[in-house]
Structure formats: structure tokens, C-alpha cells
């Protein structure tokens, strides 16, 4: 065996031993939250397509028309020949939805975060980031070379303490949070974050991957909290509620202009296919005009938390923290056997000891599906299997001041 293959095999064996090896599973997706694995038909409760727009006819037709008219790919970076005129409409529409002067579209949400953060801050600056922030915020922060301080999840006293200690020696300061936390479904205290940012001349960047399309009449977490205008950097993805692919930052014109000339993940990568831009634009039009559609995922999540006596859902994401990885995998398999697709979420996506089932609710579900799911969870005894250490208000995981993504072993 070559040393390369031996290296890869050893790594895989070590992951396997900890039950942390991940493998890709072919999954077909259809309308109404249907998913197929092999011959099995299931209802998916783990998709981020909150409004079903990936399957929406108007969205598909817009994408198909652009594909037929403009071809399959962009051909080059946006800065070369890949800046299709369709980008203008999408960016204007995103800026309108977010209430900002402009927006800058990237190839994905991941690329938006890893490109934006290093464009704005560097070694002379400082970053304060929530300990449960998504992997790509963490990676973007690391790439910037700025000193990074993790504050305890949603803990404003801890953030205040860290800012007080570390802000004055830095030129600029950036605070990173998610609007809705992707693995826990709880919301950030955005008004308090704005207050702290103002008080210390720090820039607040909100990754609202899971708020867009579902909170604040579709505008997202900041609109829901009534603080949109106080947030200078609104990041989002076109890959979840928007049902397409891509990411963006909505901000002032100077900021988006700077991103378009400096963000490496925009400059040195190919533009989005025109069909993807057209599909996303059509989906944003739906989000902007159909508040009832946008409200329904949260209503279903609340029906689910109500049925199980869980804390009231704050978003369409509801975690059931089971603690150890084996338990979460077994629970996922037991639900799959009954036709419910709910993947187990393991470290390092979540902190050690907090493996869980993560349920997401979509406008494509109906009340019967929710009630059947809740009944299955009870019948399987999963309510009693929950981890003892979860805190009552949001089944919260143990507080941590280390990012799980720092563990190179996984
Ligand atoms: C999914 C996600 C991203 C990445 O977005 P993609 O468009 O899928 O690359 C970024 N941040 C958060 C919080 C996410 O959940």
C-alpha cells in the first residue's frame, strides 16, 4: 500500500472506531418533503429547503429558461466574463429584502463567509465569535489571521467581558454570530449584540442562513428582531429557504464594492451558472410576496414542540439532544425504519457529548406528518433518552469556550 493510501486508511479506521466516519448516501428528493433512499420512500425532516422552493414550479421554470437561453456554466470568474447580467437583479432583490444599499453574491454561503471575514479584518484587528457558530465562520475567522475570542453561546456578559479586555489593543473589531443557530434552532439576542457592537465600535456580522425566508416575513432574524438597520453585515445563503445555490453578503455599497475586488473566494472562483441565479431570483420574489408561506415552517415546528412538550420552537430547527453518538445513530435508524428521514448530527458539527437528532420543518409538511412523527418519537422512547445535561430553556448543550472544529482529529 502506498504511504498515501495507508494514511487515508488509518484516518478512516480511527474515525470508524469512534463512530465518527461519515459517508455519502444517495438520496432522491421529490415534492412535499418526500425523500427516497434505495427502495424506501420517506418523509424528510432534515432538509433545509424550508419553503420547498427547490421543487417550486415557478423557480424551476425560471432556472430552466435561463439554462436554455444562456447555457450550463458561467465560464469564468465574475471579474472576468462570469458576471452574467442576471446578477444585478438578484443582488438588488437581496438588498431590498435585507434593507441594505447593496448585496454581493458568492458561489455559496461557505464561500461568502471565508471570503468576507479576511477581507474585513486581519492581524491588527480582533474577532469575537459565538462558540456555536458554523464551521465556515470559524474557518473565515482563522483565515483572517486576526486573534479570535470565542464567547460562550449567546452569553452577552461573556462577550462584554472579552470585548472589554481585548478591544482597545486592536484597530478594528468584528463580532460574528448566527441569527438562528444551525444545530440548535435558537436565536441570537441581536438587539443586545447591536448595543455591544455600538458601545465598542465593533462591526456585527450576522450569518442568517437559517433565518432568511422563515423569520421576519421572510427577511430574516434581524427584521424579526427589529434591528435590521443596525447591522452592517448581513450574510445569507441561497441554498436553504431560497432552494437554489449560492451565498451573499448584504451591506453598504462601499463594503460590497470592497468584497467584489478583494474577497478571494469571489475573485478566484467561477461565477454561478445563470440558471442558478435565475432560480434564486424567482425564489426571492416568492419570499417577498408570500408571508404566509414563510411563516409556516415555524408554525409546524411549534406544533411539533407542543406535541412533545418541548420548549417552544424559535425557528424551524428543533434539536433532540441524545448525548452520545451511538444513541443518536440508533435513534435515526429507528425513525428511518418508520419512514422518517432525520439524520443524526455528530461531533465535530456539534460539541462532544451532544450528538442529536436535528429536525427541520418545511412548508411542504402537513399537520398529519408532524403528528405522526411526534407519535413515533414517543413510541420509541426518545423523549426519555434525552441527554441529562441539556438545559431546560432550549435543550441547550453544555457551555463551551472551545470550538469543536478545532479538533484536528475529527
Ligand atoms: C449552511 C450554512 C452555511 C453555508 O451555506 P452554503 O450555502 O450551504 O455553503 C453558512 N452558515 C450557516 C450557519 C449555515 O447553516
Keywords, please?
single chain, 410 residues, alpha/beta, 7-stranded mixed β-sheet, 14 helices, 40% helix, globular, binds pyridoxal-5'-phosphate
The total count of strands amounts to 14
Major β-sheet strand ordering: 4-10-9-8-7-5-6
Report the β-strand fraction as a percent range: 15-25%
Helical proportion, percent range: 40-55%
Number of helices: 14
The whole-number mean of residue pLDDT values reads 94
From N to C, what is the helix and strand string? HEEEHHEHEHEHEHEHEEHHHHEHEEEH
Structural class: alpha/beta
Cα gyration radius (Å): 21 Å
What is the terminal-to-terminal distance?
A: 23 Å
What oligomeric state do the depicted chains represent? single chain
The main sheet comes to: 7 strands, mixed
Question: What does it look like?
Answer:
The chain has 410 residues and is α/β, with parallel strands linked by helices. 40% of the residues lie in helices and 16% in strands. The protein is built from 14 helices and 14 strands. It has helices spanning 3-17, 57-70, 86-98, 109-120, 135-144, 156-166, 190-199, 221-225, 253-262, 264-267, 274-289, 291-308, 325-337, 367-379; strands at residues 28-29, 34-37, 40-44, 102-106, 126-130, 148-151, 173-178, 202-207, 233-237, 247-251, 317-323, 340-341, 344-345, 355-360. The strands form 3 sheets. A 7-stranded mixed beta sheet has the order 4-10-9-8-7-5-6, sandwiched between helices. The longest helix is centred in the C-terminal third of the chain and has 18 residues, at 291-308. The radius of gyration is 21 Å and the shape is globular. The two termini are 23 Å apart. Residues 391-401 have low confidence and may be disordered. Pyridoxal-5'-phosphate binds next to helix 4.
Amino acid at each position: 500500500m502506498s504511504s498515501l493510501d495507508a494514511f487515508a486508511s488509518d484516518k478512516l479506521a480511527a474515525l470508524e472506531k469512534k463512530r465518527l466516519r461519515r459517508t455519502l448516501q444517495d438520496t432522491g428528493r421529490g415534492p412535499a418533503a418526500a425523500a427516497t433512499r434505495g427502495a424506501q420512500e420517506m418523509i424528510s425532516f432534515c432538509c433545509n429547503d424550508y419553503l420547498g422552493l427547490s421543487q417550486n414550479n415557478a423557480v424551476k421554470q425560471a432556472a430552466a429558461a435561463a439554462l436554455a437561453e444562456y447555457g450550463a456554466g458561467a465560464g469564468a470568474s465574475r471579474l472576468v466574463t462570469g458576471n452574467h447580467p442576471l446578477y444585478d437583479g438578484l443582488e438588488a432583490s437581496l438588498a431590498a429584502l435585507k434593507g441594505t444599499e447593496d448585496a454581493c453574491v458568492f458561489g455559496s454561503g461557505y464561500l461568502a463567509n471565508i471570503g468576507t471575514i479576511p477581507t474585513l479584518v486581519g492581524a491588527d484587528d480582533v474577532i469575537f465569535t459565538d462558540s456555536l457558530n458554523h464551521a465556515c465562520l470559524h474557518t473565515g475567522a482563522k483565515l483572517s489571521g486576526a486573534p479570535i475570542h470565542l464567547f460562550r453561546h449567546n452569553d452577552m456578559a461573556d462577550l462584554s467581558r472579552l470585548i472589554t479586555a481585548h478591544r482597545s489593543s486592536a484597530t478594528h473589531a468584528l463580532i460574528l454570530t448566527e441569527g438562528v443557530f444551525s444545530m440548535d434552532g435558537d436565536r441570537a439576542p441581536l438587539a443586545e449584540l447591536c448595543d455591544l457592537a455600538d458601545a465598542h465600535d465593533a462591526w456585527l456580522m450576522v450569518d442568517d442562513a437559517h433565518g432568511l425566508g422563515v423569520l421576519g416575513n421572510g427577511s430574516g432574524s434581524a427584521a424579526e428582531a427589529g434591528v435590521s438597520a443596525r447591522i452592517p453585515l448581513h450574510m445569507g445563503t441561497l441554498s436553504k429557504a431560497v432552494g437554489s445555490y449560492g451565498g451573499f453578503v448584504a451591506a453598504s455599497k462601499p463594503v460590497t464594492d470592497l468584497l467584489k475586488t478583494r474577497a478571494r473566494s469571489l475573485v478566484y472562483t467561477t461565477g454561478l451558472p445563470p440558471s442558478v441565479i435565475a432560480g434564486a431570483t424567482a425564489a426571492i420574489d416568492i419570499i417577498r410576496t408570500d408571508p404566509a408561506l414563510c411563516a409556516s415552517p415555524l408554525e409546524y415546528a411549534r406544533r411539533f414542540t407542543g406535541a412533545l412538550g418541548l420548549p417552544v420552537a424559535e425557528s424551524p430547527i428543533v434539536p433532540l439532544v441524545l448525548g452520545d453518538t451511538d444513541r443518536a445513530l440508533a435513534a435515526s435508524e429507528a425513525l428511518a425504519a418508520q419512514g422518517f428521514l432525520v439524520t443524526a448530527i455528530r461531533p465535530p458539527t456539534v460539541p462532544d457529548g451532544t450528538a442529536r437528532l436535528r429536525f427541520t420543518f418545511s412548508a411542504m409538511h402537513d399537520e398529519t406528518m408532524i403528528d405522526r412523527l411526534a407519535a413515533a418519537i414517543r413510541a420509541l422512547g426518545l423523549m426519555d433518552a434525552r441527554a441529562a445535561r441539556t438545559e431546560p430553556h432550549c435543550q441547550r448543550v453544555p457551555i463551551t469556550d472551545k470550538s469543536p472544529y478545532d479538533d484536528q482529529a475529527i
